[in-house]
C-alpha cells in the first residue's frame, strides 16, 4: 500500500499522540511525529526534510507500522550479528589461547582458519577474546640479561615459602 493512500483513524492518531508524548528516546519520538504528520496529510518529502530522515526511512517506518503495529515503532528491534563460530568452537579457541598464549591476533586468526575454515579479521578476533575476558598482551622487553633458569627457580621457591 502506498504511504499517501493510507488513512489513519481517530483511535490510531490518539495512540500515536500517546506514544509520542510518553517516549523518552528522541529517536523513537521522531518516528511517532513522522506518522502523525502522515496522518495530517503532509507530503512525504516535507516530513523527511523536517525530521531529518530520508523519504525511504519514513516509508519503512510506515510499512512497519502497517504490518507490525504501533508497538513495533516503539523499539529499535536490534538483533546482534551471529558469530560464525559456534559456542563450542569459541570455547576451543579460548582454551587454545590460554594454553599457547599467542603474541598476536594474527596467530589466533590463523588457528581459526586452520581448524574451522572461517576467516576472521584481527578486530573480530580481538572483540571475541575480549568478550571472553581475554586480551592479547604484547611481551615487553626487559633491559639487561635475564637471570638464569636456576636463579629464577630459587627465587620462585623462596616466594612460595
Descriptive keywords:
161 residues; mainly alpha; elongated
> N-to-C terminal Cα separation, in Å?
80 Å
Strand tally is 0
Helix content: 55-70%
Structural class: mainly alpha
Helix and strand succession?
HHHHHHHH
Rg computed from alpha carbons, rounded to a whole number of angstroms: 28 Å
Shape field? elongated
Report mean pLDDT, rounded to a whole number: 86
Unreliable sequence segments? none
As a percent range, the share of strand residues is under 5%
Number of helices: 8
Q: How would you sum up the major sheet?
A: none
Write structural notes for this entry.
By secondary structure, the protein is mainly α. Helix content is 60%, strand content 0%. It is built from 8 helices and no strands. The longest helix is centred in the N-terminal third of the chain and has 14 residues, at 26-39. It is elongated, with a radius of gyration of 28 Å. The N and C termini lie far apart (80 Å).
List the SSEs and their pairings.
Blueprint: H1 10-21, H2 26-39, H3 44-51, H4 55-68, H5 87-100, H6 105-116, H7 122-131, H8 149-160
Concise summary:
This protein is 60% helix and 0% strand. The chain is mainly alpha-helical and 161 residues long. Helix 1 packs antiparallel against helix 2, helix 3 crosses helix 4 and helix 6 crosses helix 7.
Amino acid at each position: 500500500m502506498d504511504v499517501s493512500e493510507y488513512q489513519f483513524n481517530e483511535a490510531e492518531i490518539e495512540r500515536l499522540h500517546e506514544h509520542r508524548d510518553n517516549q523518552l528516546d528522541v529517536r523513537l519520538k521522531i518516528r511517532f511525529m513522522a506518522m502523525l504528520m502522515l496522518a495530517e496529510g503532509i507530503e512525504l518529502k516535507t516530513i523527511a526534510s523536517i525530521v531529518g530522515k530520508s523519504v525511504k526511512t519514513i516509508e519503512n517506518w510506515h510499512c512497519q507500522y502497517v504490518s507490525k503495529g504501533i508497538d513495533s515503532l516503539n523499539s529499535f528491534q536490534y538483533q546482534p550479528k551471529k558469530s560464525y563460530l559456534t559456542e563450542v568452537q569459541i570455547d576451543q579457541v579460548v582454551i587454545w589461547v590460554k594454553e599457547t598464549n599467542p603474541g598476536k591476533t594474527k596467530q589466533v586468526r590463523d588457528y581459526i582458519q586452520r581448524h574451522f575454515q572461517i576467516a576472521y579479521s584481527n578486530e573480530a578476533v580481538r572483540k571475541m577474546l575480549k568478550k571472553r575476558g581475554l586480551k592479547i598482551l604484547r611481551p615487553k622487553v626487559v633491559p639487561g640479561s635475564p637471570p638464569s633458569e636456576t636463579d629464577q627457580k630459587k627465587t620462585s621457591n623462596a616466594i612460595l615459602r
